[in-house]
Amino acid sequence: MQISENIYRIGGAYLVIGDKTALIDTAPRGGESALVHEIEEILRDRQLDYVILNHTEPNRSHGLSAVLERYPDAEVMATVAGIRNLKEMQSRPFRERAAKDNAVLELGNGISLRFIITPNLSWPDSMVTYEENSGTIFTCDLFSDGENLMTYPDYVENALKRLSELKITAVMPAEGDILRGTDIQKAFDIYGELLDKHREQEKNKTALILYSSHYGATREMAECIRGELESAGVTVTMCGADEDTVPNINTFSAIIAGTGTYERGASESVMRALCGVNAVLMRHKPFFTFGSHGWSGEGANILHAMLVSLGMKPFSKPFTSIFNMSDETRERLKRHTRKFAEFILN
User: Cα(108)–Cα(111) distance, rounded to whole angstroms?
Assistant: First the structure.
C-alpha cells in the first residue's frame, strides 16, 4: 500500500525510496514470500540498498533471510545489540552496520533517516527510525495496537520525552493504524495516563496475601497477618488460591504467600498463581512466606525459594506453625507482621 510519494507499507514493514532504498523491518514466519514479492513489484529493476531492523523479535525480523536471498548486497542496520542477535539468527554472512543513537542515514532526494535508541520497547535491542524532513516516524511496537510496554515504565517515560521533542506528522507502527494529526497526541496521552497509573500504584503500599489452606490453620494465619497489616495502614487484598480469582499479582507492593505442606510439597494452586510474577516488575519487591504443617514443613520453604528465584526481596525466613497456632505463635506472627509492615511502608 502506497502511503506517500516515497513510502510504501507492506504488512508490518515499510519501504522508503529516495535515491537509495531502505526496507524498515521485515515479516514474521509465513510472510516472507509475500514481502519479497511486494518489494520486487515496487522496486522493479532497482536494488534494495538497506534493511533496517527496529528490533530483532522474530515477528519483525524473520523475513530477513528471504530478503537477503533476493537482495544479497543490501546492508543490514540495527542497534549494536540487534546486529549481535542477527548474527546468531542468520545462517549466512551479511553486510552490516550498527545504527548508533542519533546517527543519520541519508537516502538522497531529501530523505534522512535518524535512529533513536529505545531499549526494552519492547525488546532490549529496540530503536525507532525518524524521517526528519517529512516528520514520519517508524515505531515498530511503540504505538502499535494491543501492545503493552509498561513492563519498563522508566524506559517508556524516557522514550516519550525524547520523541515529544520531535516534529512528528505521521506515526508508522508495525501493527494498527497509521497515526496523523490529533491522533498522535492522543497516543502520547494514553501512554502518559498509563505512566501516571503506574506511579500512583508505586506510591500506594498494597499487599497481596495469597494462600491455600486445606484444614483452616493456614487461613487462620492469613487472617492474623491481614489484621496486623491493615492496622499498620497497608491496603490488603486476601485471596484463597483454591477458591478465589487471583488478582493481577504484579500490581502489589508486597506479596505474602502461604501454604500447607502436602506430601513434602507446596500447594499447586499457590505455586500456579506465583508463576504469574513478572520478574521485571516485581524485582526487589518484598515478600515473606508462611504456613501451617504437621509431619513436615517444606511447603513454605518451596514458595520462599520460588520467589527468591524470581528476584523478589525476602523479608525473613518462612514463618511456620505446627498445626494450629498457639497463643505464643500467634503473638510472634503479629510482631513479625508489624515489622514487615514497617519494612514495606518505609
Answer: 5
Judge whether 121 and 159 are in contact, CB under 8 Å. yes
pLDDT for 243-271, tens place per residue? Answer: 889 999 999 999 999 999 988 999 999 99
Ordered DSSP codes for 3-22:
-SSSEEEETTEEEEESSSEE
Q: Is residue 1 included in any domain, yes or no?
A: no
CB atoms within 10 A of CB 272: 11
Residue 289 sits in a domain whose CATH number is 3.40.50.360
Pick from 42, 85, 92, 49: which is nearest to 69 by CA?
A: 92
Examine the domain organization and report whether 56 and 145 are in the same domain.
yes
Say whether 97 sits in a helix, a strand or coil.
strand
Condensed to tens digits (0 to 9), the pLDDT of residues 81-116 reads 999 999 999 988 999 999 999 999 999 999 999 999
Structurally, the chain folds into a number of domains equal to 2
Please answer whether residues 236 and 209 qualify as being in contact, where contact means their C-beta atoms are separated by less than 8 angstroms.
yes
CA separation for the pair 61, 202 (Å, rounded): 35
pLDDT of residue 68: 97
Domain boundary among 161, 176, 200: 200
| Together in a domain, 230 and 334 | yes
The per-residue pLDDT for 197 is 86
**93: enclosing H helix or E strand:** none
Do residue 137 and residue 211 come from a single domain? no
Residues 284 and 303 in one domain: yes
249, containing H or E segment: none
**pTM of the model as a whole:** 0.83
Burial class (CB in 10 A: 0-12, 13-18, 19+), 177: exposed
Distance from C-alpha of 258 to C-alpha of 217, rounded to nearest angstrom = 10
Domain of residue 293 covers: 204-341
pLDDT of residue 146: 44
Q: Which of 200, 218, 240 is the last residue of a domain?
A: 200
Question: Residue ranges of the chain with pLDDT lower than 70?
Answer: 145-148
Q: Which cell numbers hold the place of 186?
A: 492522543
Do residues 133 and 271 both lie within one domain? no
User: With left for phi above 0 and alpha for psi between -120 and 50, is residue 284 left, alpha or beta?
Assistant: left
Residues 61 and 46 sit within 8 Å (Cβ to Cβ): no
